[in-house]
Amino acid sequence: MAGPRSGTDIEGRLTLVFAVACGLMAANLYYAQALIGEIGPALGMHGKGAALAATLTQLGYGAGLLLIVSLADLVENRRLILIMVAGAAIGLAGLFLSRGAASFLLFSGMTGFCSVGAQIIVPLAAHLAPDARRGRVVGNVMGGLIAGIMLSRPIANGLSAVAGWRAIFGASSGMMALLGLVLWFVLPERRPTARLRYGQILYSSLLLLVRTPVVRRRAAYQAMIFATFNLFWTAVPLILAQRFGLGQFGIAVFSLAGAGGALAAPLAGRLGDRGHTRLGTAGALLAAVAALLTSLWAVDARALVALGCAAVLLDAATQLNQVLGQRAVYSIEPEARGRINASYMTTVFVGAACGSTLASYTFFRGGWSATAWTGAAIAASALLLFLTERRFPATDV
C-alpha cells in the first residue's frame, strides 16, 4: 500500500494513529511488572523467579532496541512495523494462555522484543513531518507513548481486580491485532535508500553514537533523566503504602495523576520547532532536580498532594528532554534515523534499567531519603554535563 513519502506532510489523523500505536506497544512492557505479585504464585514462581518474569520483558525490549530498530534504515518500514505488531500480539496471547513458568518467561521476552515497533514508528513520524513541524509531530507521538507507560499499571491493576491477571494480556493481544489491522490500511510505505548489510547497519549505529557529539550528549542527558524517572516510579509505590497508607487502588490513582506529565511532550515539540532546544533542555534538567527535592520534603511532611505535584513535574521534565533530544538527533542525517534512534534509545534504556536497580538498593538501605537524594544527584549530574556543552548546529534547528 503506497502512502506519503519523504517530504510529504503527515496528517493529523496519522499522527494520532502513531501516538495510540506507540502508547499501546509501550504499555506492554509494564503489565507483568504491575501484576507479578499475582502472576508469580499462580505459575509457581517465587523470589528471583518471579522477579525474572517482570524483567524478561524489559530485557527483550532492550535486545529489540539493539537488534531491530536500526533495521528501519534497511527494511521497508511499513512491513517491519506490521511484523513487530503481529509478534507482540502473539507474545501477549502466549502470556494469556501460559500455564507454567517456562512458557510465561518465553512469551515475556517475545512481547518485549516485538514492542520495539514503537521505536520504529517514532523516526518514521519524524521522516514524514516537514522540518518546521517535526518537533510538534514527534512530541505528539511521544505524548501517546508516555501516556501508555503511565496508564499501563493502573489499567492492569484495575482489570486484574475485576477479571484476574490474565485478562490484561488477553485484552492487549486483541488490541494489538486490531492495531495491526488499522496500521495495515493507514501506514505509508517508506523504502530506505541505504545499501548496507545488516552487520554494517549495526556497526554504523554504534559509530553514530561514538562519533556524533549531538547524539552522544542527548543520549547521555536522557539516560540520566530516565534513570531518575524509573528510580522514582519504582520506589514511590513502596513509600505510598508505607508512609501514606495507600492500598492498590490509591496507588493506581496516584499513577494516573502522574500521567499528566505526558502533556509536556506536545509542548516540548513546539518549543523545539521555535529554536529553543537549549533553553528547554536546561529547564527540563532543573525541573527534574526540583521534583526530586520536592518529593523529599513531601514525604517527610506527609504531603501527598505535593508528592503528586513532584511526580507530574518529573514526568514533564522527562518528556520535555526526550522530545527535544529526539528532535535534535533526527535532524542530523535523515537516512540514518533508524540507526540513530537505535543507539540513542539503547543508551536511554540502559539508564532506565540502572535507575530501577538503584531504586531497590537505595530504598531498602536508606528509605525514601536515600532514593530521592540519589535521583537528585543523577539529575544534577546531567545538568552539569549540559553546562559543558558547546553549541552544536543540530541542537537548535
What does this protein structure show overall?
Residues 1-8 and 393-397 have low confidence and may be disordered. The longest helix has 51 residues, at 337-387. By secondary structure, the chain is mainly α. It is globular. Helix 6 (118-128) crosses helix 15 (337-387), helix 7 (134-163) crosses helix 14 (304-330) and helix 10 (213-242) packs parallel to helix 13 (277-300). The protein has helices at residues 12-27, 31-42, 48-67, 77-97, 101-114, 118-128, 134-163, 166-186, 198-211, 213-242, 248-258, 264-273, 277-300, 304-330, 337-387.
- Global outline: globular
Strand content: under 5%
- N→C terminal distance: 33 Å
User: Could you give a short account of the major beta sheet?
Assistant: none
* SSE arrangement, N to C: HHHHHHHHHHHHHHH
* Unreliable sequence segments: 1-8, 393-397
Structural class: mainly alpha
| Total helical elements | 15
Blueprint (SSEs and pairs):
Layout lengths: L11 H16 L3 H12 L5 H20 L9 H21 L3 H14 L3 H11 L5 H30 L2 H21 L11 H14 L1 H30 L5 H11 L5 H10 L3 H24 L3 H27 L6 H51 L10
Helix pairs in contact: 1-6, 1-7, 1-8, 2-3, 2-7, 3-5, 3-15, 4-5, 4-8, 6-7, 6-15, 7-11, 7-12, 7-14, 9-10, 9-15, 10-13, 10-14, 10-15, 12-14, 13-14, 13-15
Defining traits:
397 residues; mainly alpha; disordered C terminus; globular; 79% helix
Quickly describe the structure.
By secondary structure, this protein is an all-alpha fold.
